[in-house]
Every structure is written in C-alpha cells, then in structure tokens.
Amino acid sequence: MLDAIGHVGYILLLIGTLLVTRRQAAGWLFRLAGESIWVVLGIKLGLTSVVTWGLVFIILELRGWWAWRK
C-alpha cells in the first residue's frame, strides 16, 4: 500500500513539473501535494532524509507558487 501511495506522490510531482515547464503556476501546487505525500511516507517509514529534504522542497514549492502568483 505504501508503495502505491509513493507512486501517486511521484505522479503528482511529474504533473507539477510538466505544468511548471508550461509556465502554469498550478504546477507548484501539484508538486507541493506530491512532496507532502513523500514527507508523510518518510515519517511513516522512519526515513529522516526523506522527511528533511521533503520539507526543504516543500518550502521551495511554496516559494515558487507564491512568486509565480505575482
């Protein structure tokens, strides 16, 4: 089950990246959702690297979304 959830997270990251490359701000929200899934999985699996870097990327996703909204 966790593996399937991980795939959903990666699909959201992929869609988000494609939207960002098409200059659509909504891509940042897809990336935020995908990264959030990975942070939760990292917590569940006890993987501090996944949680730490996931939080770093969440901050970047929020900054990207905020900057593109202007």
Terminal-residue CA separation: 39 Å
Supply the number of helical segments. Answer: 3
Strands, total number: 0
Residue-averaged pLDDT, rounded? 94
Class by alpha and beta content:
mainly alpha
Question: What labels describe this entry?
Answer:
single chain, mainly alpha, about 70 residues, flat, 3 helices, about 90% helix
Protein architecture, described:
This protein has one domain. By secondary structure, it is an all-alpha fold. The model has no long low-confidence stretch (mean pLDDT 94). The chain is flat, with a radius of gyration of 12 Å. The longest helix is centred in the C-terminal third of the chain and has 22 residues. 89% of the residues lie in helices and 0% in strands. It is built from three helices and no strands. Helix 1 runs antiparallel to helix 2.
